[in-house]
Amino acid sequence: PPWDDPSLGELIVPADELQARIADLGAAIARHYADRPPLLVGVLKGACIFLSDLARAIGLPVEMDFMAISSYGSATRTSGVVRIVKDLDIDLTGRHVLIVEDIVDSGLTLSFLTRNLLARNPASLEVCALLVKEGLQATSLDLAYEGFRIPPEFVVGYGLDVAERFRNLPFICEYRGGDPAGLS
Ligand code: PRP
Ligand code: MN
Ligand code: MG
């Protein structure tokens, strides 16, 4: 299996803890948006797995759209340049928008995205991030929903990749570096 890889390090969040936390997040989101079902905006590609589980944990008729944003490329450090690779299909005007992100690392992607989406005049805009790295964000970000705070190590799994690998691990673990097995 893909998790038998020497470049993978310590387990950071096991699969059952991810699922338990996502159930809680879904319930909290359902309470908050009970009278105004949200439009979930998933940030591809990293958030695809989280959004799939989260959407099913929200007992409301949500809508979904996706935006593809990239700043890491195949590297383990942000390039500092955030790029829209695919834009949304749905008009955000008057909508209650909930951004769904897998991880807030430097915070660059999210600050770019909130500025960009606010300019489209949504009725409200909030963020749900599964993971937040501690002590790395230059500016403070206002996260309405947050899954786990994790130490500032490069992590993979549950949507998070290095050079497109490891997104399908059902847990979050440390990436130790080196070449992922099979990559040349
Ligand atoms: C990763 C991750 C977040 C972002 C967080 O995306 O999925 O979107 O970086 O980093 P930041 O807070 O430093 O901006 P990436 O650019 O690797 O694209 P991907 O989601 O397609 O893997
Ligand atoms: Mn991403
Ligand atoms: Mg990535």
From TrEMBL:
Keyword Cytoplasm: yes
Enzyme Commission number(s) from the entry: 2.4.2.8
GO molecular function ontology, one term from the record: glycosyltransferase activity
Subcellular location: Cytoplasm
Keywords: Cytoplasm, Glycosyltransferase, Magnesium, Metal-binding, Nucleotide-binding, Purine salvage, Transferase
Keyword Transmembrane part of the UniProt annotation: no
Pathway assigned to this chain's UniProt record: Purine metabolism; IMP biosynthesis via salvage pathway; IMP from hypoxanthine: step 1/1; Purine metabolism; GMP biosynthesis via salvage pathway; GMP from guanine: step 1/1
Domain Phosphoribosyltransferase: 16-161
Requisite cofactors: Mg(2+)
Catalysed reaction, written as an equation: GMP + diphosphate = guanine + 5-phospho-alpha-D-ribose 1-diphosphate; IMP + diphosphate = hypoxanthine + 5-phospho-alpha-D-ribose 1-diphosphate
Family affiliation: Belongs to the purine/pyrimidine phosphoribosyltransferase family.
Record's protein name: Hypoxanthine phosphoribosyltransferase
Gene label: hpt
